Amino acid sequence: MKKLKSRGQRLLKFFHLSFVCMWVGAAIVLSVKQFFVSPSGGEELYGIQSTMKFIDDFIIIPGAVGVLLTGVVYSMWTTWGWFRHRWITAKWVICAYGIAFGTYPLGPWQKGLVNISKEKGLAALTDPSYVHNRSMLYVFGTFQVLTLVCAVLISAVKPWGKKPKISSSTR
Length: 171
Hints:
The protein has 4 helices and no strands. It is an all-alpha fold. It has one domain. Helix 1 runs antiparallel to helix 4 (about 130-155), helix 2 runs antiparallel to helix 3 and helix 3 packs antiparallel against helix 4. The protein is elongated and about 65 Å long. About 20% of the residues are buried.
């Protein structure tokens, strides 16, 4: 397959890093913000939760999809390949996990907080479903952020080399 030239690779790197910044930066903001939410009224609680859902829908999701798509382009049209290096494999695993986990448990928990706070106002803070969703986001949202930061660290440090080639004599 034809490979990207130097200029194309630089442009691809710009877009990939921009999407990484969107995904990781917004995830850090949501994770940290959730520990400092102390609204004085129901409308304020709903406003905070709506804002957090907006950040999820319009910054985190496009960032994650952008990382995935630019990662595919990297793998197909550069010499980095799909699984040539162990650190690339680790990043693929983290990316797939991050998108799947963000889509299924984290997203619905966040949406639940918005819906319950809209319906119940400040009384949502004592609603069992709200408390459960919030607790899950505390723990697993923080874990998600840590895994994303790990992916950035892995990308910067590239701790593992190439996978050993399997010679024809060992098959």
